Amino acid sequence: MSRVPVLTYHSMRVEGGAYASNDHVALARDLELIHRLGLRIVTLKTIARAVIDGGLDRLEGAVGISFDDGPDFDWRDIHHPAHGFQRGFANILRDFAARTGRTDTHATAFVIVGPEARRELDQTCMAGAGWWNDDWWPYAASRGIAIENHSWDHNHATLERTMQREGAKGNFTAIDSYEECDLEIRQASDFIDARVGEGACSLFAYPYGEWNTYQAQTYLPTFGHEHRLIAAFTTGGEPVTPGSDRWTLPRYVCGDHWRSPEELEGILRGTG
Ligand SMILES: [Zn+2]
To answer: Residues 230-240: pLDDT tens digits?
Structure first.
């Protein structure tokens, strides 16, 4: 049975300079592992389409790569105040492509979309240095980094107010009505398309990896003509298989499902 692991990295996770504490270090090492194992990298849209049309067998020996939340370091290098220079994720992919001659070094960036939410999260979750912009989205999208939907405001705990009607924050399962899903999901698809290009947005990643049955079984399958998404990703910690549901496609998270190259090798070989 074909199985396609999808890996997730957070460019904001810079807590030190070692593999286990820094997703920039981990991504660079993991690309070498992917290369050594002879895996090809396919887009998450390719994986979603293969699940939908029953053709996942075509993707045997493939892996998907995604980035979550969409701070600037998905794209740009940064000088971290505590941990120094960090190569941006897109540049890590570019370095890897230059070194290996590979042409399949794409990734999907699931971004928090609302400008106000990003401005506020930049203050509350990062250094308040203006590191959460959307100016780079169109460039990234034309250079192998797909810009996709990680909701309007993540229903994030540190925001003053979110789209959740009763002020329940810090989890995405509280988004359980049409009105809230419309604001969190459809509104975000519209903004990405306006910023990146018509039809750019086609995938969703649940904030915190959390979803509820209203989102996955009612809103997303029913209102496709409004949100225009074809699939949604969780952080379920298993590979995508032919039996996976298109609205709850699982991913693995760096630092959570694996903390070393050896653990990732187990996941990629199907023994971990
Ligand atoms: Zn997130």
So the answer is: 999 999 999 99
Per CATH, which fold does 6-269 belong to? Answer: TIM Barrel (3.20.20)
Confirm if 70 and 109 have CB atoms less than 8 A apart: yes
Ligand 1 centre to CA of 196 (Å) is 20
Contacts with 242 (C-beta within 8 Å, 6 or more apart), sequence order: 1, 2, 51, 54, 56, 57
14, β-bridge pairs:
22
- CB within 8 A of 114, min separation 6: which ones? 152, 153, 187, 188, 191
- The alpha carbon dihedral of 7, 191, 153, 155 has a sign of negative
How far is ligand 1, taken at its centre, from the CA of residue 230, in Å? 19
Taking the C-alpha atoms of residue 66 and residue 18, their distance in angstroms, rounded to an integer, is 20
How remote is the CA of residue 150 from the centroid of ligand 1, in Å? 7
- The answer, as to whether pTM is greater than 0.90, is yes
| Residue whose pair of structure tokens reads 């460039």 in the numeric block | 139
Q: Give 199 Cα–ligand 1 centroid separation in angstroms.
A: 22
